[in-house]
Design a protein that fits this description.
With about 260 residues, the protein is of the alpha+beta class. Helix content is about 45%, strand content about 20%. Strands 2-1-5-4-3 form a five-stranded antiparallel beta sheet. InterPro entries: Sig_transdc_resp-reg_C-effctor, Tscrpt_reg_LuxR_C, WH-like_DNA-bd_sf.
């Protein structure tokens, strides 16, 4: 229990750091680095999902590992050129929802270890255990994180999955600006004239989803009073006086979450 509670403390610290990074900083680099304080992994690759004609490609990888750059490039190159089509976990990219799954959850271990993907790719590079984290919002995949452990270590624990689930909402909202699938981004031009801050837009999204001030505060790791201040700023800038009028106005303008 003490170890679990300590994990929750680290999660809170990671979330606060992510929410305060500079706009030009790639949140994936920060997250991969900070994640090592929460759970061990030997190789992590964080991709952006490029959605085109309903097909998803993993692009712009950010890597954090215990290996040299030659190993990293070889591992990524082999996946892209030889093994992507053989992966037994590739289907999760098409589910259009956030999912946190171990490879050992996807297939019976005997079947998994007899697959060509495992024997010629995963095992060849010295890995044994894999944790797949797919991030999606509003029916669109925006990013994919895969963590690997070598054969000398234990599989990822249930608590690791729980921790990643807790962090998923924070990661999704930090990544939305990087996603290569923003088909509705132009629909929100009507908001430009109000000069809302990034945080105010985040709060506005959650209001549109009918979340309470407490729920918004928990997701963004801010107090209810801070949420109220952001809401008051939004009301003042948009010349509105209530949540209901704000939501009605957004529906009228055919608002799409950014």
């Amino acid at each position: 229990m003490k170890e679990f509670n300590y994990g929750l403390v680290i999660i809170n610290a990671i979330a606060k750091k992510i929410n305060t990074i500079e706009p030009e900083t790639d949140v994936r680099e920060i997250f991969l680095k900070e994640l090592l304080s929460l759970m061990d992994y030997d190789f992590g690759v964080f991709d952006i999902c490029d959605v085109h004609n309903e097909k998803i490609s993993l692009v712009e990888p950010v890597v954090k590992s215990k290996y040299d750059s030659v190993f990293e490039r070889s591992f990524l190159f082999d996946y892209d050129t030889k093994f992507a089509g053989l992966s037994y976990s590739r289907w999760i990219h098409n589910e259009k929802k956030t999912m946190i799954l171990r490879d050992s959850d996807l297939l019976n271990e005997c079947i998994r270890k007899e697959s060509r993907y495992y024997k010629e790719y995963i095992k060849t590079y010295g890995f044994e255990h894999v944790l797949n984290c797919e991030y999606a919002t509003n029916g669109y995949n925006i990013a994919s994180l895969t963590l690997y452990r070598n054969h000398k270590k234990d599989d990822f624990k249930d608590s690791d999955i729980y921790y990643m689930e807790l962090l998923s909402t924070c990661i999704i909202y930090a990544l939305k600006g990087m996603a290569l699938m923003e088909p509705n981004s132009e629909d929100n031009n009507f908001l430009d004239k109000y000069s809302l801050t990034k945080r105010e837009k985040e709060v506005l999204n959650f209001v549109y989803e009918s979340k309470s001030n407490r729920e918004i505060g928990n997701i963004l790791f801010i107090s209810e009073n801070t949420v109220k201040k952001h809401l008051n700023n939004i009301f003042q800038k948009m010349n509105l006086k209530s949540r209901q009028k704000l939501i009605s106005y957004l529906h009228l303008e055919q608002y799409r979450e950014y």
